[in-house]
Amino acid sequence: METRVSSTRGGLLSAAADVHVVFVLPGREATSVEEPLRALVAAEVKRRRFRARVGAVLAIDHGEAKARRTLIVAGLGEADRGAVERVHLAAAAAARAAAARGARRIALAVPELAGLDETPAVRVVVEGVQLGTYRFGRYRGSDGQDGETPARRLDRIVIAGAAPAAVRRGAAEAMAMVRGVGLARDLVNTPPADADPQALEQAARALARERGLAVRVLGPRALEREKMSALLAVGQGSDVEPRLVHLAYRPRRKARQRLAFVGKGITFDSGGYDLKSPSNMLTMKSDMAGGAAVLGAISAVAELELSVEVHAVVPLAENLVSGGAYKPGDVLRSRAGKTIEISNTDAEGRLALADALSWTRDRVRPDAMVDVATLTGACVVALGPLAAGLMTRDDALAERVLAAAGRAGEKVWRMPLFPEYEEMLKSDIADMRNTGERWGGALTAGLFLARFAGDTPWAHLDIAGPAWMDKQHPFWGKGGSGAAVLTLVELARGA
After folding, report:
1. Which residue of 278, 296, 323, 426 sits 20 to 30 Å from the alpha carbon of 183, by its own alpha carbon?
2. Which one of 153, 276, 393, 414 is the catalytic residue?
C-alpha cells in the first residue's frame, strides 16, 4: 500500500501520529519545540549533549504509559550545505528512526529555511521521508532483515504547519520524484542475471505503458543499419544481444523545449579482456545506473506532466569475455564515422555512449542533451563518492544543470575540458583511442564523448561516485542510490 500524505490545521503535537518530528537549527534545539514539551526537550538536549548537526536525531518518549508517544528532534545543521540537501538528510534520518520504532504514522513540522517556499518545503520533506526509508525487498523472505534498513514503510505522513493546497501540490510532486528515484534504485539493485539488456528493455516497455510514453527499440539488425558498430562491439561477447531503447514524452500542450537524456546501460561490466579485479567486479551490476537514471527521470517528468518534451535514450549491452568479445587493439568504426582504436576494453561505456549520442543528435534533434554514466573511477578519485562530475563546453547549459542540481539537493561539480588533453586520445592507426593517459581520466573521457555530440548543446554527468553507496547513507541509502534522477527532473522543470 502506498504511503498517504495529509495535512493538519493544528500544531504538530496535536496531529494524530505515532511519532512527531520537529526540525531544529544548531543553538535552537529546544526553542523551536511547542509547549508543553519545550522544557523536557531542553533538559534532554542538555543531558544527552545533543547538537543539531545535519541528520542528527534525538528521540524523546513522553506522555502517560497508555498514551506514550515519541518526539524526534531532527537537526538541520549549519548553512554550509543547500537547504534541500539539509532537509533531505534531516527528514530521512528522522523517518528511519521512526520506522525503527515501529511507527506507521509520522507527523512532521514544515522546516523554515531560507530559499525554501512552502510547497517546495513540503516536497523535500516527503522526498526525505520516502527515500530515507526505501528498502529493496525483491529477494527477501517475509521476515528477512539486514539489520540496517527498516522492515516496513510508513503508512501515512502528516504535514503540520503548511496550507492544505501546498501540501497537496508538494506531496504530488514528491511522490512522482520518489517513484522515479525508486525505479532507478530498483533497477540498479537487481542482480545482473535478472537485469540484462533484454530485461531492461522489458522494464522500459512496461514504463512506457504505465506513463503513456512512445517507445522504440533498436535490436542488432537495426543497430547494424544505423552503423552503430561501437555499441555492437561492446555487447558482442555476450549471449544477450545489445540494443538501444528510446522512450519519448510529449506534453499535451506545446513543449517549451526538447531535451534528451542519454544513459549508459551496461548491465554488467566484467571489463572485457582488460578484466576487472574480483572486488571491483562485485558491484558492476550498477554500471547501468546512468540508464536507470534517465528512465527514472522520464517517469517523473511524465507523471508531473511538465511542459517540455523529453527523450530517454539508453544503449544496452553486457561487456563480457568470450571467443567473440572485442579485444585490445581492435579498431571500431563509430556511427559518426570516426574510427576508434581500443586501448582498453574496460572503457566500454564511452563507446556505447558515442553511438547513442550520435544517434540522438541526428534522430531526436534535441535542443540540448545530457548523458549520464558511471564512466570513470578517476571521477571518484577527484570528487569522492557523493559528487557527480559535470563536463560541458556550454556555459549556459552548465549553469542550468548546476542550478537544477541545487534545487534537487544533489552534489554536482563542474570539471574542465582542457583542449590540451585532446592529445592524450591520439592513435597511431585510427582517429582516436578510447582512453587517454593515466592522469586526467575523467576529463579525457569527457573529451572523447564531446566529439560525438556535434553542435548540439551537450553536457556529461559522470555519476561513478554517487550511483552506488557502499555504506548506508541517511538519504541515498545503501547500494543503488538513484543519483541524477532528481537533477534531470529539475532540469526539465526549469526548461
Report:
1. 278
2. 276
- Cβ atoms of 267 and 198 within 8 Å: the answer is no
Find out whether 127 and 88 touch, Cβ atoms under 8 Å. yes
Q: CA-CA distance, 447 to 425, in Å (whole number)?
A: 9
Residue 63 has pLDDT above 80, yes or no: no
Clarify whether 350 is annotated catalytic: yes
CA–CA distance, 61 with 67 (Å, rounded to integer): 10
| Domains defined for the chain, CATH in brackets | 4-162 (3.40.220.10), 184-493 (3.40.630.10)
Measure the CA angle with vertex 369, ends 366 and 371; round to 5°: 145
Chain centroid offset of residue 454 CA: 26
Q: Give dist(CA 96, CA 334) in Å, integer.
A: 48
Identity at 100, one-letter amino acid code: A
Q: How far is Cα of residue 436 from the mean position of the Cα atoms in its chain? A: 28
Task: Write out pLDDT tens, residues 168-218.
Answer: 999 999 999 999 999 999 999 999 999 999 999 999 999 999 999 999 999
Q: Name the region of 210 (left: φ>0; alpha: ψ -120 to 50; beta: rest).
A: alpha
Active-site annotation holder among 105, 350, 361, 451: 350
- Report CA dihedral (151, 156, 161, 162) to the nearest 10 degrees: 120
Determine contact, residues 53/141, Cβ cutoff 8 Å: no
pLDDT at 75 over 90: yes
Amino acid letter for position 148: E
Q: How many CB atoms within 10 Å of residue 10?
A: 10
pTM for this prediction:
0.96
pLDDT at 207: 98
Among 248, 282, 245, residue whose Cα is nearest residue 263: 245
State whether the Cα torsion 274-279-282-285 is positive or negative.
Answer: negative
Q: Rounded CA gap, 417 and 438, in Å?
A: 16
Q: Copy the grid coordinates of residue 349.
A: 561505456
Q: Are 466 and 387 in contact (CB under 8 A)?
A: yes
